[in-house]
# Entry
Amino acid sequence: MNEKNILLCVSGGIAVYKAADLTSKLVQSGFSVKVIMSSSAVKFVAPLTFQALSRNEVHTDTFTENDPSVIAHIDLADWADLVLVVPATANMIGKLANGIADDMISTTLLATTAPVWIAPAMNVHMYNHPAVQKNIQTLLEFGVRMIEPGSGYLACGYTGKGRLEEPAVILEKVKAFFSPGNSVLKNRTVLITAGPTKERLDPVRYFTNRSSGKMGYALAEQAALMGANVILISGTDILPDPKNVTCIHVESAEDMYQEVMKHADAADIIIKSAAVADYRPKQVLDSKMKKSADQIIVELEKTTDILFELGKRKKHQFIIGFAAETNHVDEYAKEKLKRKNADMIVANNVTLKGAGFEGDTNIVTIYHKDGTAKELPLMSKTDTAKEILREAALKLGERKT
Ligand code: PMT
# Structure
């Protein structure tokens, strides 16, 4: 965890004392921690406590610029690998959900491109208030991750949901986030499909699509680097087999279906990034079709929907489907997630420049079963693969705990 930077944003509530404990635990685990406190937070615990625990200056005011060579809130926003808002008050959640930047924390939160996690802590009625719930939902849609509050005795005297998650549990989630390969994917079996399928019409002709296999191969490479046992079922021969990956080459949707089913039971994660043909010629000719009529009609029949079959038989497997769409991306992706009983759908709008087929980059949105979605910017297929695996590892880690 040595090179990972955690920016801890402490907003004001009685649970601030737990944030001090979290600071200590993060530092002891080898993270670099910098702290910003709201004006309310400093009324509960003095900044000096956090300074001593983090061994870094604590920021409380946007306009206190101690280092003239940088602008503090931008510098902190850029420095962070992960931003934690612990505890996250109703007020701070509301500010972030509505783009308000009127203090050091809210301004920094708008300026950062690092992942942001909020750990709410408040009175049960405040937590259940529709305004707070709506703001939390907005943040989830922005890609902010929530560390759910627990239920129990609250400092205000009530019993109910609103207790800050225990620092030890938050620490475990942070560690898992930075080491998904070590803690979650290591020694897991990951089954990945990649590339197009080819559906033969006769010995010299087939129907296929534009998939190069690059997205699936990037996933296989990264999963192997994270310590997983990777089986790649590929519809292309053009790319070199990735290192430390068992590669099985197939041609048609039916071949791919057979191979996937052979390995599905042993897999912990299945990723269907292949662009599988939905239809194939009903009749495959033994000899080359001769040119004669001006027009011909080729009758097509449906192939087996491999992802759908996997969803039907799912036991312990975490299943990730893809959705290559040209319109209504959000609607179609959510529909596929549900109908195919997947745990995650990675949707790409293949009409966007830099997204989808053939190129080295992609732009995807990851849809989870719990209704949350994470939109990723344009990035290399390698980085996209890392993010997809990280999301899967996080979800699997949560399942375990
Ligand atoms: O290979 P690249 O050039 O790098 O391009 C990457 C990609 C665009 C192919 C990839 O990012 C992608 O979107 N893959 C899925 C393409 C696709 O077939 O999407 P779909 O929306 O038609 O299918 C939905 C899901 O069902 C997919 O997970 C697909 O693998 C699966 N499916 C579809 C049909 C079928 N008969 N069996 C299936 O399992």
In short: The longest helix spans residues 381-400. The chain has a mean pLDDT of 93. The pocket of PMT is lined by residues 195, 211-215, 253, 272-276, 278, 303, 305-307, 321-324, 336, 348, 350, 356-358 (CB under 6 Å). The two ends are 21 Å apart (CA to CA).
